[in-house]
Amino acid sequence: MISANPLFHGVVPPVATPLTERYEVDFPSLTRNLENMIAAGMHGLFMLGSTGEVAFHDAATRQAILEHAVKVVNGRLPIFAGVIDPTTDRVIAHAKAAKSIGVDAIVVTSPFYARTSQGEIADHFRYVREAVDLPLIAYDIPVCVQYKLARPTTVALAREGTIAGVKDSSGDDGNFRFVLMDCADIAGFFMMTGSEILVDTALAMGAHGVVPGLANVDPHGYVRLWNAAQAGDWATARREQERLCRLFEMVFVASGRTSAGSAGVGAFKTAMRRLGIFATNRMCRPQQDLNADEAAQIDAILKTAGLLG
Amino acid sequence: MISANPLFHGVVPPVATPLTERYEVDFPSLTRNLENMIAAGMHGLFMLGSTGEVAFHDAATRQAILEHAVKVVNGRLPIFAGVIDPTTDRVIAHAKAAKSIGVDAIVVTSPFYARTSQGEIADHFRYVREAVDLPLIAYDIPVCVQYKLARPTTVALAREGTIAGVKDSSGDDGNFRFVLMDCADIAGFFMMTGSEILVDTALAMGAHGVVPGLANVDPHGYVRLWNAAQAGDWATARREQERLCRLFEMVFVASGRTSAGSAGVGAFKTAMRRLGIFATNRMCRPQQDLNADEAAQIDAILKTAGLLG
Amino acid sequence: MISANPLFHGVVPPVATPLTERYEVDFPSLTRNLENMIAAGMHGLFMLGSTGEVAFHDAATRQAILEHAVKVVNGRLPIFAGVIDPTTDRVIAHAKAAKSIGVDAIVVTSPFYARTSQGEIADHFRYVREAVDLPLIAYDIPVCVQYKLARPTTVALAREGTIAGVKDSSGDDGNFRFVLMDCADIAGFFMMTGSEILVDTALAMGAHGVVPGLANVDPHGYVRLWNAAQAGDWATARREQERLCRLFEMVFVASGRTSAGSAGVGAFKTAMRRLGIFATNRMCRPQQDLNADEAAQIDAILKTAGLLG
Amino acid sequence: MISANPLFHGVVPPVATPLTERYEVDFPSLTRNLENMIAAGMHGLFMLGSTGEVAFHDAATRQAILEHAVKVVNGRLPIFAGVIDPTTDRVIAHAKAAKSIGVDAIVVTSPFYARTSQGEIADHFRYVREAVDLPLIAYDIPVCVQYKLARPTTVALAREGTIAGVKDSSGDDGNFRFVLMDCADIAGFFMMTGSEILVDTALAMGAHGVVPGLANVDPHGYVRLWNAAQAGDWATARREQERLCRLFEMVFVASGRTSAGSAGVGAFKTAMRRLGIFATNRMCRPQQDLNADEAAQIDAILKTAGLLG
Q1: Would you state the pLDDT for residue D7?
Q2: FRET partner for C259 with CA separation of 20 to 30 A, picked from A131, A235, B26, D164?
Q3: Residues spanned by the domain of D103
């Protein structure tokens, strides 16, 4: 089901960033998370994505996180680095730093805050690619940047070699499928879905990889799902996916009280604290942490999913 | 029509940032713009707003722009500094730099890229205010940040003293009016509209100030409008406003070809080049500059408005 | 401030439709409402608008309402009839019925449910105008139909004589102003705002009329506002407008519990019941009626506004 | 992969409604279309959906279409009737007529034009169900009605027996999956996707049926896809789906010139004219017909898909 020889493939989780109670990066917890992921059989690691709260970290913190990850991972897996900021030249600055630290690919969104056209968005990716010689992955996340990468934009950037792949968090699976079909003949080009709950179907369409935030909580589940799909065992893939869907419902626990952003990553962090990976469930300011009542509901979900005794 | 003793008031244009052909800040042109504004009778200057392309400038460039403005203005007018970035602690870093440079107030948007709730947005403003002892102006610009400042949020922040005023670019004049009424008893609190074309009506509702990007092109027009409104001469205010509306149509010249962002600020820069204030009409990357054909259409608009012989 | 000789002008309230407890039109209450409006000095009456719950009434009920209104009003005021349904030929059928009943103008929205382009929207108005020889008023209400009437569409329809006027409930007062300016030379063409809370400012821009649902509750207030504006007494207009803004806050009473639709018209009906105009506050199905607790809050608002002793 | 014993299942196309050049229903063409569908092996027929241009037809025309379909089909397949209009009691009137004509199920959207809450939407379905004793299918089509059926609303209506199934044109496949999982234990309850291009994946998730407008053009393709999915032959299903995706691209031919509505159904009608099923490609007013140049592009697409020699 997979295009020959994609540049990258498999389960590439967006790694959550643990904080201390005092809002500093908790490097021992980060190490635990990375080792837990590697042990579970991830195929790559995506540092500083939305799940990694990239927009909350300044340049120095971002570099410290990447340096730590590169050191811990030590070549065992490819590392993608989110180099995410509103505009082109600021993205290039992050990208250069990431390259010098030694990551394997960079992940770039469309500009945000600024209001741009599809032509300007395409130029944005071109300018970044020209400035930094690393595989560039387009991150399509309209819920954060307000703009959808239009199919002609994506296909043109793929065909000219500006982008090596796409990480699609747009929720528009019809467009995802058309881009997959349009780019099927481009050697090495890859498409990854950012969904947690439509992974089996994305793989059935031919997606080359998956980037599920929930893999911070249950990396083994996504590996089983990936392996079943590779084997063409779609019944097993669906069963595993449905179990993961129920686990994913943790993100709705606090969504009435706080924002979707806090409720989602906050749930992952709360679960990871319960599982002994993170020391706290602290969120970057001004996001709100999940409270004790919400944590108890998440415990129940972990039990149902078989992750807690 | 004006509340007694607002902290700030009047015409406070968002100052456009000139670039050289090589994408560097063109300080001589910036000086010309600032002196042109001061000579025209502005009541304050807003550096590093959306019109100033703030999101495109890194911290060092922002500081250089603010230092230049503080030096040129030299106390002749209050300076507001946009300290705009996705999240709280990054905003605080910009705000501390701005304070040390000597600006008079800071202008802060809701978080962006991050998805937050009204409670988290309120906390964002509180954290910034606690960290930096300067008057804080809330910048309500949903077209850039995706979130509208809800009326209860704004009123609570005003009443507790977190925010000193609002710069409203939301286009929701009904909400603007309700907030004006709700906060009319708060000493010193002020509301400014970001509109170019509904200034007379905002002033008629009781707005304390106006922040029109078009004042970079025609500062005298907005001063005349302001003065007429202060005198209660609404017929003159309307006449001046309608002339400025026709001038504002320059922002539609390139809007079919490129983005609303480029077409708008790009038109201002193109007009200012024609008027001898800016040396180029260069836009920050990846935005597109207006071309010669578009510049000719803008010349015609300037002539109709009486700004070119 | 008003264009010479508009076809229609003044305060033209969208008349609310009273129901019995059994969901039938309550004609005695409707008579009371119409007489109350006429006595207060309205300049026209808009039957079967959104406030009149037009979308809930079938053809026979609509005709009964129009026949009743024509009979009660008996030529004392012009009557506008909303002929609102998803698509062209169905609108034409309503329009022909309305014409045969004897209304003075018809009010038509863009198509809805169907997804159309600006070109198709323009043709929609042209087809209706060709089929029914009555002044046609374009009703711009994107919150109900999903489409904004674009400025070029409106201006083209006005200039070719397809539409005689606009009733603008879009909330885009900048666009309203541009259309006013663009069409100022078209004899008889008129623009009316559908806002309750930005009436003084719309009149200051040159609007020829106002269509406030709240005039069902306080018609005298809008007449005072209109008269002050005609006299150029903008300070009085603003004071009256601000009182009406506070009265308008009744629409927020139930907006957390039910929909904006129910909460708004439901509040008007609840107030009119308290004022003895309507016998019930019944809403068309599936909308929810306001409850006793909400009615008590609305009583308090009526008292504050001076409408209840 | 299918729940035991759903009330309805399989390929249930939304039947396009042919018109003469004079905008009247072309019954001979409709007969050809129905016979073509039945011969191809459809499992049911959905008359008067969005593809059937339901919103453009008045009550008499709708009844004539249903009567014709019931007569032609003569019990060979179940017939679903769209009973679609803005509000509850008007929907009930259509539903009673449809029942008396002898259809097997009715398809109902959320209210539109009216602004309603989830509670009012739920009551809308309940009122219709109480009034008309036929299986009721909820039609989730936010692009037309502006409201998404929230997961708790859908699940509550399913569990209490108000709705027998869902036809989902929302594009939110994550929500579709959760509702499928939540309702898996409700005997007879069924979920159908309205997508043309994500049919294999919807079936892989457990969808019980598909309602693709494109089946008017290529019913055999969707039957092959359905049969492959039933056999668990997902590789064949994907291959057929990808061929149908390329065929579906006909809807983009005119989408730059006219609306998505015209461009979509207009493309189907244009293809059906070329295939000898329809006599014209006429669209209901004010929609625009596809022109000769667009028809030529559609011919090329039909050839590529193997439907034209």
Answers
A1: 85
A2: D164
A3: 10-233
Give the C-alpha separation, C213 to C193, whole Å.
11
Chain C's closest residue to B247, CA to CA, is C178
**Strand locations in C84-224, DSSP E?**
105-109, 136-140, 165-168, 190-193, 209-210
The Cα B256–Cα B267 span in angstroms is: 13
Which residues 6+ apart lie within 8 Å of D22 measured at CB? none
Amino acid letter, A117: S
Q: Do B198 and C177 touch (CB under 8 A)?
A: yes
C151 inside 8 A of chain B by CB: no
pLDDT in tens, chain D (309 residues): 444 568 899 999 999 999 999 999 999 999 999 999 999 999 999 999 999 999 999 999 999 999 999 999 999 999 999 999 999 999 999 999 999 999 999 999 999 999 999 999 999 999 999 999 999 999 999 999 999 999 999 999 999 999 999 999 999 999 999 999 999 999 999 999 999 999 999 999 999 999 999 999 999 999 999 999 999 999 999 999 999 999 999 999 999 999 999 999 999 999 999 999 999 999 999 999 999 999 999 999 999 999 998
User: How many contacts (CB atoms, under 8 Å) link A and D?
Assistant: 58
**Mean pLDDT on A140-161:** 98
Mean pLDDT of A249-269: 96
Q: Chain B: list its partners (3+ Cβ pairs within 8 Å).
A: A, C
| D128: Cα within 13 Å, side-chain hemisphere | 39
- Residue B246 forms part of a structural domain: no
C97 pLDDT tier (thresholds 50, 70, 90): very high
Look up tokens 């708060």; give the residue. Answer: B186
Which chain A positions have a beta carbon within 8 Å of D176's beta carbon? Answer: none
Contact partners, residue C193, CB within 8 Å, separation at least 6: C168, C169, C173, C176, C199, C202, C207, C209, C210, C211
Q: In this complex, is the C-beta atom of C114 within 8 Å of any C-beta atom belonging to chain D? A: yes
The pLDDT score that the predictor gives to residue B5 is 65
Say whether D247 sits in a helix, a strand or coil.
helix
Q: Contact D218/D247 with Cβ under 8 angstroms?
A: yes
Interface of A with B in 279-308 (CB under 8 A): 284-288
Cβ neighbours of D111 in C, within 8 Å: 55, 286
CA distance B203 to B262: 28
Number of domains in chain D: 1
From chain B, pick out residues whose CB is under 8 angstroms from the CB of C178: 197, 245
Q: Do B119 and A258 lie within an 8 Å CB cutoff? A: yes
Q: How far apart are CA D288 and CA D278, in angstroms?
A: 17
pLDDT score, position C5: 65
Neighbours of C300 (CB within 10 A): 12
What residues of A are in contact with residue D204 (Cβ under 8 Å)?
200-201, 204, 234, 238
Q: Identify the chains in contact with C, defined as 3+ C-beta pairs within 8 A.
A: B, D
Look up the CATH number of the domain holding residue C169.
Answer: 3.20.20.70
Q: Is B169 part of the contact surface with chain C (CB cutoff 8 Å)?
A: no
> Which token pair is C179?
């259309």
Interface of A with D in 234-263 (CB under 8 A): 234-235, 238, 242, 245-246
Whether residue C239 is contained in a domain is answered as no
Q: Do C120 and D286 touch (CB under 8 A)?
A: yes
> Quick check: is B134 in a domain?
yes
Q: Do B174 and C197 touch (CB under 8 A)?
A: yes
Question: Is residue C11 within a helix (H) or strand (E), and if so which, with residue range?
Answer: strand C10-11
Structure tokens at B21: 């052909």
What pLDDT digit, counting tens, does each position of B58-74 carry?
999 999 999 999 999 99
Is residue A211 in some structural domain? yes
Residue B309: both structure tokens together: 């012989």
Helix (H, G, I), strand (E, B) or coil at D84: coil
Contacts of A among chains (3+ CB pairs under 8 A): B, D
